[in-house]
Structure to design on (514 residues):
């Protein structure tokens, strides 16, 4: 699968919904950035046809059928919107929201836009890429004050693309919905956009970002020089360091296991943003070069680099290693905080996007299939054959109820092309299936039996049989057990065998309509 770099999509006025919510809280440009301006113009209507229940009024909300493209984000931080949120465009001229409808007959149709804004943000109406009118989008007095403005345009029989296009440097107001009023309009599934990209999902609630955000302040700023002293010459870091005293650098094997290298890079990017000291900038650049160099040509990342042999050479999802890398690349490629400084050039970001695209391609090819149905992923996969691989004796080839969560969540940061959307929905369906979770139970590591009754809770296993989806446990003898009390106390108490893993991704999927 080939995907265009997101950076290019923006330049080509393609679709981009950058990370929303806490992970991409747009710095200065957030609420005011794409907030809508809405004061009724002469053609405004305080009582729209849709409000009156007109059967010939079609209302299109964010991510409804007919919602095609957005240069910006879908946000939900200003009260009073309808649906799941509102369209917050980028603060640049020609940022747009595009819809697609079909009408049975050519003729005049009213377009009603519900919006809010603290200032006036005019926009053109383009129908099938030709300007067909405009909206004043005058101030509504605040981001939580919503109104509608209406204009009449002529639509052709059949499908029509309708775009609201900003004509000012502030972008459009916050657009809550478009209503098309006339003779039987219907919404059209946009599928893949003409530029080859799929829609972007709102990121508020996506669990893949929580670790990224916490990495920014993983240590106090007073430890920055200590952490810097442990960076190897090639740019990576060792794992499980306490960072209590100065290190000596060197050129040992770096790793992405247990969050190493990625966490340090994000943390030092924040330190550089706060201090402006060049030594931290240089360390972040060197770490990014290390991560890009460590990627296999097939798109995955090994656990250690340079390679050390054995199971650590497999592409490693275990402990969310690869998804941590991809999530960091995702934020860096978009200039999200703390990478919104002079850390990287456009060329750097293009290289990151290329690495992301290869990573996505690897993930799609590695997704395990049972009887023709896509499921989830293993903790390790072969770098070239994409097949599930074992690691330590008690880490057998299996489907992962833990790591698969963030694999799915990362895919949900990317353009939802048909291939990506199919993979995501299959993975979510696997987690939702009653065949994969243990109902009315929870995993309690503080008790000997670990798996205990808890009404209303659900527990997913760490490991599942590749063919039967049956959860199992294993021990240092390499055996497969289906009763946790049959494995040694040392393994039973020294490893996490279950948890409420699926709840996070199911909750987010519910929010975005997946």
């Amino acid at each position: 699968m080939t995907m265009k770099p997101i950076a290019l999509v923006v330049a080509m006025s393609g679709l981009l919904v950058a990370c929303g919510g806490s992970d991409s809280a747009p710095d200065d440009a957030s609420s005011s950035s794409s907030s809508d301006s809405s004061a009724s113009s002469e053609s405004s209507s305080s009582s729209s046809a849709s409000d009156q229940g007109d059967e010939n009024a079609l209302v299109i909300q964010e991510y409804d059928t007919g919602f095609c493209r957005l240069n910006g984000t879908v946000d939900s931080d200003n009260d009073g919107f309808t649906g799941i949120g509102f369209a917050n465009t980028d603060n640049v001229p020609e940022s747009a929201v595009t819809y697609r409808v079909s009408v049975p007959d050519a003729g005049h149709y009213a377009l009603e836009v519900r919006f809010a804004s603290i200032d006036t943000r005019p926009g053109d109406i383009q129908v099938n890429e030709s300007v067909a009118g405009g909206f004043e989008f005058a101030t509504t007095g605040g981001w939580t004050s919503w109104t509608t403005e209406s204009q009449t345009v002529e639509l052709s029989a059949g499908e029509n693309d309708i775009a609201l296009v900003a004509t000012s440097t502030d972008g459009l107001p916050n657009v809550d919905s478009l209503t098309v009023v006339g003779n039987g309009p219907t919404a059209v599934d946009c599928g893949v956009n003409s530029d080859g990209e799929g829609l972007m999902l709102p990121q508020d609630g996506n669990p893949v970002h929580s670790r990224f955000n916490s990495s920014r302040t993983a240590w106090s700023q007073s430890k920055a020089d200590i952490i810097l002293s442990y960076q190897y010459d090639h740019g990576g870091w060792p794992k499980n360091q306490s960072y209590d005293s100065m290190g000596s650098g060197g050129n040992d094997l770096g790793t992405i296991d247990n969050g190493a290298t990625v966490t340090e890079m994000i943390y030092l990017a924040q330190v550089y943003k706060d201090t402006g000291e060049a030594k931290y900038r240089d360390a972040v650049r060197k770490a990014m070069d290390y991560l890009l160099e460590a990627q296999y040509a097939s798109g995955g990342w090994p656990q250690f680099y340079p390679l050390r042999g054995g199971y650590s050479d497999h592409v490693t999802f275990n402990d969310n290693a690869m998804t941590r890398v991809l999530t960091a690349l995702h934020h860096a490629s978009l200039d999200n905080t703390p990478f919104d400084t002079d850390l990287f050039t456009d060329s750097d970001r293009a290289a990151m996007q290329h690495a992301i695209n290869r990573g996505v391609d690897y993930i799609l090819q590695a997704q395990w299939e049972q009887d023709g149905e896509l499921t989830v992923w293993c903790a390790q996969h072969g770098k070239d054959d994409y097949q599930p691989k074992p690691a330590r004796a008690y880490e057998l080839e299996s489907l992962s109820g833990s790591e698969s969560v963030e694999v799915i969540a990362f895919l949900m940061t990317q353009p939802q092309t048909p291939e990506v959307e199919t993979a995501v929905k299959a993975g979510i369906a696997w987690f939702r299936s009653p065949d994969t979770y243990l109902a009315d139970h929870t995993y309690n590591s503080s008790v000997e039996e670990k798996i205990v009754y808890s009404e209303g809770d659900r527990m997913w296993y760490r490991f599942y049989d590749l063919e039967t989806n049956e959860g199992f446990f294993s021990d240092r003898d390499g055996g497969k057990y289906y009763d946790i009390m049959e494995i040694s106390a040392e393994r039973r108490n020294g490893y996490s065998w279950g948890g409420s893993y699926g709840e996070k991704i199911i909750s987010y999927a519910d929010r975005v309509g997946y």
Remarks:
- The first strand starts at residue 57 and ends at 60.
- DSSP finds eleven helices and 25 strands in the chain.
- The longest helix spans residues 346-366.
- Residues 1-53, 192-196 have pLDDT under 50 and may be disordered.
